Amino acid sequence: MQVYTMRRCLALTLLLAAASGLQHSAVLDPDGDLVIHWTPEEDSNSIVIRVEARTRGWAAVGFSPNGAMTGADIVMGWVDGTAHAQDMHAVGNSAPLLDDSDDVELLEGSENSTHTVFTFRRPLRSCDTEHDLSLGMDTTRLIWALHESDPTPGRGPSYHGTRRGVRSVSLDGSGVFRFPAPGESESFVFGNSEVALPEAVTYYHCSLKKLPDLRDKVHYTGYRVKLDPATAPYVHHFVLYSCTIPAHMHDQFDEYARSHPGSECYSKNMPPRWSFCESVGVAWAVGGEGDMLPDHVGMPLGHEHGGSTYFMLESHFDNPHKHTGLKDSSGIEMFFTRSLRPVEAGILSVGHSVTSTQLIPPGQKNFITASVCAGTCTEKHLPIEGVQIHSVLLHAHLAGRTLNLRHVRNGRELPSVAHDWTYDFNFQQSRIMSQKVRILPGDTLLLDCGYNTEDRTNVTMGGFATRNEMCLAFLTYYPRTHLHGCGSYPHVGHYLKDLGVRAVEVTGLELPPVSGGDVWTVGGFKYKADGANQLMALKNETEDEENIGSATNASAEGSRDDWFNKAQLSTMKVSVEGSPTVTLYEYLTQMSWGQPAVDALQAQVNGGQVFHRCQNDKLVLQSDYREEHAGPFSYPEFEPLVAEATACPQGRTSGAAGRHSLLSLVSLTVVTTASRLLL
What we know:
The longest helix has 25 residues, at 513-537. The protein folds into two domains: 2-173, Cellobiose dehydrogenase, cytochrome domain (Immunoglobulin-like, Sandwich), CATH 2.60.40; 186-491 and 603-633, Jelly Rolls, CATH 2.60.120. By secondary structure, the protein is of the alpha+beta class.
């Protein structure tokens, strides 16, 4: 259970950081053989890193774009009476090479009977753009290796063997939170209880939870994930949705929380009324630990205090090898305080609505899908002084490589709210915003997600399965407003037209693709609102409710991983010249994705027309779809941001023209005591 062991090691990082005198720490391997401590120094464009390795030989840490050796930016150190450090890079699975430009400043080094320790400084953004990686908010994949012997002059280091590994971290410290020590805060747990995982690659389990009796108003202050050691490697994410329901449904939700065992999410077995639980309260994904609010900020709990009493816990399990006999009891520990805080926070989900019409062709190195949180939505719901962003969790699935939450005001793009140019599906941690980021009424947010599908032979669709894709950002902000969701859908009719579709069939009508796409999309919005109206009218759980649920959750036959796509895309049929009429799902999965088709789709999903979605939490399922959905609209026009180049000293090289052989000891940086070297 390496995942669980690592998580237990992470609990030590705050103590380790304090002992080192640096701000942050991470245990890079389960046995604790290599620990790093670091402090980013943004004002001086540098970072100080201390490496503590259980070896009397060499130790190396590397900053890798993808977790592999190739392209990694490496620092190797050892002590043989004097301390040594080298700035290096890897061109393959072989010994790393020296950089022509030495950007590593060795500060100190020492060795005892068990450990080698060295501390160095390097730029966050180096002028050696060929071999040094920029460090900051983006996910950094730290590769590491150890050996019991020092390097041999003229020959270099011995092969590390199995003493190596990789760990993703956020080196700017934005993903590091201080959680309450035992007894320091009151808390309760929303979790699973021996939930049996089916023999399926992807499984979503939903269960209804009720707030414990807290007597008085309290403020939620943060959460920490609690993983079951038996199933930790299979837990991909949790989303805790708050339920906004009318008073006459409280008794029924009490019964759900008391006796309903939970069910597969969004299936015919899930009570339809659970669809009133749609406002995100907590979002956690694999690799993260949790999130804590600032000391002056809290969230109310309990409907009588402006919060929620009922919650739906969505648990996503990823079981690629379909292991059997698994039962999960993981959950989320919710911290709260009875000392009410002066400011209340909210959570806003931004991005591409989870829909099968999010399409990514196969064989793509960097395919971009874009979504819009419209200025009309922020204008309607945000206070005149705007809101402050505290933290952001970026979320995509296996094909995700880059996410960039862009910020536009008055027709001009501002610096990104958050970005991750080296996204890691297995490291999804909330990031605290180090800079003051404020969203004002009328501001537009754009979430761009880049995907790599070079290993896939068929189209990837949006959806819930791990092999489906998502493009979402969860923003914790304050002060709290009623806005909780702001995103968009692509206009399916426009890209079908550009893909060569002659006509579409919707509800028995044959229409041109653009107008057919309008009818199909708006009809889906209206259908959902009509279902909400029927549920609202019911006073008790009845056979009628079961019928509504069966109709709402009806899906086409298929595996657990594709039912969502088939259910959505089988309600439209398409006609292409010279081919029989087929469902939209069949058309998209059977078509040949040549470059013209890829280019046409790219133009539509990154700059084409979209439908806006603007959700408030007064009543999550609106009685009229037009209160939540609007469009189609053109992609917003604005003046894009021009990135500032890193200022480099005159005469510095931007990369090595040639490559040196490893460890010619005359080129080593040698330090006998802590010292500073001019770069």
